[in-house]
Specification:
The chain is globular and about 70 Å long. It is about 25% helix and about 20% strand. Strands 1-9-8-7-25 form a five-stranded mixed sheet, with no helix packed on it. The protein folds into two domains: about 200 residues, FAD/NAD(P)-binding domain (3-Layer(bba) Sandwich), CATH 3.50.50.60; about 210 residues, FAD/NAD(P)-binding domain. It is of the alpha/beta class and about 425 residues long.
Length: about 425
Amino acid sequence: MTRTTSTVVIGAGHAGLAMSRWLSLRSIDHVVLERGEVANTWKTERWDSLRLLTPNWQSRLPGYSYDGDDPDAFMTMPEVISFLERYAAFVTAPVETGTTVSRLTAAADGYTVITDQGTWTAPTVVIATGACNVAALPSFSTDVPAGIDTVTPADYRNPGQLADGGVLVVGASATGLQLADEIHRSGRQVTLAVGAHVRAPRTYRGRDIQRWMDEVGMMDERYDEVDDIVRVRRLPSLQIVGTPTRTTLDLNALTSMGVRLVGRFAGISEGRAQFSGSLRNMCAMADLKLGRLLDAIDDWASQHGLDAQLEPPSRPDPTVVEDSPPLGIDLTRGDIRTIVWATGFRPDYSWLDVPVLDRKGLIRHDGGVVVDSPGLYLMGMPFLRRRKSTLIDGAGSDAEDLSAHLTAYLDQHVAANV
């Protein structure tokens, strides 16, 4: 059976739901296809202790926002799931759950979306499947010696599932830091392989760092206002963690509790892990960028006459790096029993049968408007239209912009076919 609508939205996470809301507000008939349930990724691919990295006040979607009594706290995963489920009900999103898209192709009058529950045709399609579908593992991950378990953050739930013994966590962005901390606290010796990272305090001068970035306007910085959008879209996530105590978790905090730092994991040769010698430079660069961020906040606070109301400016201690970090570890000795690949994710477009991918397998787009494929749109990717695009708080603004473009396209499409 083939059904027809004006827009097919693929994915019922926060980005897809935000787009659904704006399509409804613009009176565009549409359907939202979801392979599992609403908020499926939040339900099936998150570890037990994870909380949002953004404060509750920043959980804002079109026409809906957090209304509890603790705006500065951080939602647990069950709370996030409940929030999104309530939002889907609030906007009466036309979600068809349990519907897996197997193929998207171009058609004479738009697109054909083939699913395990039938086929849809539409002149416009919004891809809101997210940026984190498949773990981005290094090519040498297949060279890990036998006897060492490997796990990605999508599979990890808690330290109890790991073998006894040492753990090598690879990647020092928000996820890597949180997992290194939790696994170390379980009694295991943890080594953290550190590559490029973005250091940030949880709070600064008495305010949450997200509050500062929101007020200063950094979160609303547009993709067409930066010098090198390709580089910016590849930046790691901030090294922040959401905890009831608003703790700052950085490399210094980890080393103070006994986690050992090594450089970027560069390869495996004859069972020996090889690490880059650039650890000190990586940390120095992160410290430098942190200083620039805090300088920008201080300047903004002074310009707005807030200095007297705030704690005085301060700077965290530089990242401490041992004099000679090891450049290798023999993985065959048994000291390391598990490797956690916190090396990021990439989207899965294996079902996409439209020539819109670049050489890295990413969709070519201009602020979410897919290049060379009229009527095709993208949501939920890093810095799609704004710095906050991947956050719950960023989906609404992007959806408003893209739904306006989509509406104009549909108007032209209808006029051309009258």
